[in-house]
Amino acid sequence: MNVLAAFALAASVAVGIAALALRALHAPLSAVLLELCGTSGRARFWSAFSVVTIVLSALFGMLVSFPLSENYQWSDYPMLPVAFSAIRFSLFFLLMALGMLGFVLLLGIGTENRRLEEASDALKGTV
Q1: Which of 3, 18, 1 is nearest to 59 (CA)?
Q2: Which of 41, 58, 84, 86 is within CB 3.0–4.6 Å of 18 for a Cys-Cys bond?
Q3: Cβ-Cβ contacts under 8 Å for 20 (sequence gap 6 or more)
Q4: Would you write out the chain's pLDDT as a tens digit for each of its 127 residues?
Q5: Which domain range does residue 19 map to?
């Protein structure tokens, strides 16, 4: 099996396993997200966010484990290790950006929820 076929097979298996996990998690995750988020719009966003993150994480894990060492036989494809390395770093930083986005959104949601609770408490106090 040549290296491109091995890469395609590994990527397909990684995405396939991620898809199976997402299929198993979809209904329970949707229900939990709707309960936690309070609105269907927020729940849909976090569901899509989870799907993207899980699939990208599976691909990143596959790329991290794919051998790119000098002693591996890359003579037929000398630039392939460079391309794989670039994709690996791209996925890593994309996952980092998603993590930061998720963190910032969670902080914003927490702040907004506290503000709404305080406003609700203030209204209850005036009634």
Answers
A1: 18
A2: 58
A3: none
A4: 677 788 888 889 989 999 999 999 999 989 888 888 888 998 899 899 999 999 999 988 888 887 776 666 667 777 777 888 888 888 999 999 999 988 888 888 888 888 888 888 888 876 5
A5: 3-126
